[in-house]
Amino acid sequence: MDLRLPVSLASAYRSRSQQARVVSEAWGAEQLFCAACIRDQLDSFRNNNAASDYHCPECNERYQLKSQSRPFARRVLGGNYRAMCAAIEADTAPSYYLLHYAPTSWTVRDLVLIPHRSITLSALVKRPPLGAQARRAHWEGYCLDLDRVPSAAKLAVVQNGLERPRAEVRADYARISPVLSLKAESRGWTLDVLRCVERLENEVFSNDDIYTFSDELSTLHPNNRHVIPKIRQQLQVLRDTGLIEHINRGIWKKCFA
Q: What is d(CA 142, CA 82) in angstroms, rounded to the nearest whole number?
């Protein structure tokens, strides 16, 4: 992977944001790859495709590139809230490539891949609607809350200017794939419980340790009034997908780094 962005393309534009868009999209068309299969280059969609920038002709995985000159913080600005909710429920949302580049040298510093099935409804934060006088009156956008995406589903491709081997990235993708292959209506709960497991300090933990997150999970899933049984069910799902191991009655062990 060439970590140098094609800065020569920026000379045709005055706006810094336009320069960044053109340069990063051109770089992505040449350098990004599919983690879901062995395809080492993605195809670009035609302009004005609001949902995705690239797709894999081998497995039809869709990707959207978001780039900025500063490290990504907790929230990433998204598009139409209702459209994204519908895409998540229909399993048609794109995976995200998050690109952080150095603005002076136009080189890639960090690149993270978030598989689309790891983005759940609870990870979306609805923004206030536009006012009645706006061109898109009452339009609602969203932000993606990266803290609500499990760490296991944030796949590092480039870290501090150093590219990771693609085989390692694809291995990370394969490790989380059993959870991502679950049906959309149940996957949100599983990923939220996985995120809670990741936040526990100890490698071995108990049911009671996870139950401390019951209020948080209840807030994320207000329609479920049986939170504790649901947590136990999701621990069994995580066991079946190989991400945790059942050690003893009510005792579990993490099987991921």
A: 9
Question: What is 111-159 written as a DSSP string?
Answer: EEEE-GGG--GGGEEEPPPPPTTSTTTT--EEEEEGGGS-GGGSEEEEE
pLDDT digits (tens, 9 = 90+) for 16-53: 888 998 999 999 999 999 999 999 999 998 765 556 78
Report the candidate in 211, 183, 81 with the shortest Cα–Cα distance to residue 140.
81
C-alpha dihedral, 139 to 135 to 78 to 101, nearest 10°: -170
Phi, psi for residue 142 in degrees, rounded to 5 = -150, 165
Do residues 66 and 98 lie in contact, with contact meaning Cβ atoms separated by under 8 Å? Answer: yes
Spatial separation of the C-alpha atoms in residues 237 and 227, rounded to whole Å: 15
Report pTM: 0.90
Tell me the three state secondary structure of residue 170.
Answer: helix
pLDDT tens digit string along 116-169?
A: 999 999 999 999 988 888 788 889 999 999 999 999 999 999 999 999 999 999
Q: What is the mean pLDDT of the chain?
A: 92
The bridge status of strand 62-68 relative to strand 95-102 is: parallel
Q: For residue 21, what is the enclosing H or E element?
A: helix 16-31
Say whether 142 sits in a helix, a strand or coil: strand
> Could you give the CA distance from residue 59 to residue 38 in angstroms, rounded to a whole number?
9
Query: Domains plus CATH for the chain?
Result: 7-181 (3.40.210.30), 185-254 (1.10.10.10)
Q: How far out from the chain centre does Cα 65 lie? A: 11
